[in-house]
Amino acid sequence: MIQNACHIIGKQLLFLKDKQNWKHLNPDSKFLVNRLKRGEEAAYEMLFKEYYQMLTVFANRYIQDLETSKELVQDLFVSLYEKRNSLEINSSLKSYLFRSVHNRCINMINAKKIRDKYAEYVNANMNLSENSLEEEVYLSEMQQAIYTAISELPPKCRKIFKMNRFEGLSNNDIAEQLSLSKRTVETQISKALKILRVKLEPYIAISN
Question: Considering its fold, how many domains does the chain have in total?
Answer without folding.
Answer: 2
